[in-house]
Amino acid sequence: MIETEALRKTFEVRQGRTVKTVDAVRGVDLHVREGEIFGFLGPNGAGKTTTLRMLATLITPDAGRATIAGADLLREPGEVRRRIGYVAQGGSTWDEVTAREELVLQARMYGHSKADAHARAAAALAAFDLTDYADRKCKTYSGGQRRRVDIALGVIHSPKALFLDEPTTGLDPQSRARMWDEIRRLRSEGMTIFITTHYLDEADALCDRIAIIDHGEIVAEGTPKALKREISGEIVSVTLGSAAELEEAADQLRTATEVLQAEPSVRKLETHDEGIRLFVESGASAIPHIAKALDHAGITIDSIELHRPSLDDVFLAKTGRSLRES
Amino acid sequence: MKLLRDTWLIFQRQTLLLVRQPVWVFVGIFQPVMYLLLFAPLLAPALEGPLGLETRAEVYRVFVPGLLVLIAIFGGLFQGFGLIAELRAGVIERSRVTPVSRLALLLGRSLRDAVVLIVQAVIITLLALPFGLAVGLGDLLLAYLMLALIALMTSSVSYGVALKLPSENALAPLMNTVAQPVFLLSGILLPLALAPAWLQTIAAFNPFSWAVEGTRALFSGNLGDDSVWKGLVIMAVLTALAVLWAARAFTRTVR
Q1: In a domain, B19, yes or no
Q2: Which of A86, A91, A101 sits opposite B89 (nearest CB)?
Q3: In this predicted structure, what is the pLDDT of residue B48?
């Protein structure tokens, strides 16, 4: 549905008198299959939005090729526009008009007749559960309602593929869950959905496949499950018993680190504010050894927890950063 | 056909927005109406002598056209602010992902501005009638055409600049800087006939001084005056260039 090959974009950024070129996207290859929800992840400034805007025909790539819903991005952008929908991150509605007016105008801009546009607007309002507020001005809507109008605008012409830029940013948890349902509903209607997000739980729960972009290049692509499996083994998190003094706590942490590093079942170790994260082959067999070793060293354990690698661990492994920090 | 249809679509939408908040039509003519009511009576006796005008009506035939060109230039140049608000709301980006004609995105807006200007011009013309202004209908319609061209041109320029420089803080001083010399060098408030020779020479290079002179000729019933066709041709050419330039900005807007 969406195939890109070595897509590139360079921007010129002026800093005072010197003009600096920034390679925002340097050779991106993507293969999005028909009818899937494809998640595009990356830290801020990694090239996510630039890639998305190229695919939505808003900016022209400097090099590379792309075919979207069967149309060539560079040779027939008009055809691409007809076949895709795009919903920007910052919203797209005007305060002083109603959702129905916006939807009718959007359908008309896609070339539909007046009667057809009104029918499509009514259908979209019903599908997104907006009929009750359809004739109120957009400025009276809640964040979640307004976001649903944005999505409805993006799909008013029944596109084959839909691009969503951070569709749930700024929404409360309920509206977010609601938005996920809407996106899944669109997939069930046969639409291919390409979303950028920086929420890993969103990528995990919603996306069939994901790609991670960093410094303008794809560093990983696959199903969330397969990517997590690549981080083989399991993770044991240990937090230490609260020490009376700060110094003592630091001492304990240092001792614990030394002890655990010597432990053969521990493959990798990271310390952080609350304790230590250990990467092991199998948590079930490693935990008794870890507990025994710490007990021997006279260190009290507050909690010991076993978990499977999350997408954040994948992200950390692929980009060297945690998405939460970036 | 698609261009006409799309232009009509955008024109309707922009007109709807204005009808929702019609106050802006009147805010736009508040200042010129004040000039007409409070400044023209003061100016009239001062102008009669130097220009050799014999009646009050003749003074208004000089003053009113200048006022109308003034609102056409300033009204047009400040339309970009509305576009910046639309850019910020994401409305423009939403339009640009559709196959809608890029020229229509511009024309629908600037034609709306031209229509608003004509409404404002009619109000001012009507208000000037009690002061003794008299003008032939045919001449008046041609003068309105001149004004519509100016509005189309200046609003297109303003939209183009707003797309390339989407910040109110940059647009306001820029437009004022452009508008001030254009305004002073076009004989809008006082005819350039009163100016020293060097100032007249500079003003001759200001296309708007031709527009002002042509509009004045039309208000005085001198349809055959050279300044009429010259003014119209100059304005038409500049309008075409401004429209093409701004439409390209709608196609190319980056980020």
Answers
A1: yes
A2: A91
A3: 76
Give the integer Cα–Cα distance in Å for B146 and B73.
12
The pLDDT value recorded for residue A326 is: 45
Same domain? A205 vs A217: yes
Residue B51 within any structural domain of the chain: no
The CA distance from A135 to A115, in Å, is 18
Q: Are residues A143 and A260 in the same domain?
A: no
- Point out the residue among A90, A97, A109 whose CB comes nearest to the CB of B98: A109
Count of beta carbons in the 10 Å neighbourhood of residue B67: 24
Number of separate domains in chain A: 2
Instruction: Indicate if A135 and A208 belong to the same structural domain.
Output: yes
Residue A317 forms part of a structural domain:
no
pLDDT at A233 over 80: no
Residue A98 belongs to domain spanning: 2-229
CA atoms within 13 A on the CB side of A205: 13
d(C-alpha B204, C-alpha B224), whole Å: 20
Angle of CA points A288, A293, A299, to nearest 5°: 110
**Given an 8 Å threshold on Cβ–Cβ distance, is B97 in contact with A108?**
no
Is residue A74 assigned to a domain?
yes
Write down the pTM of the prediction: 0.83
A91 inside 8 A of chain B by CB: yes
The answer to whether A228 and A203 have CB atoms below 8 angstroms apart is no
Residue A163 has pLDDT above 90, yes or no: yes
> Which residue in chain B has the smallest CA separation from A86?
B97
Residue B224 in domain:
yes
Looking at residues A91-103, what average pLDDT do you find?
Answer: 93
Structural domain total, chain B = 1
Which residues in chain A are contacts of B7 at CB distance < 8 A?
A: none
Q: Angle at CA A209, nearest 5°, toward A205 and A215?
A: 105
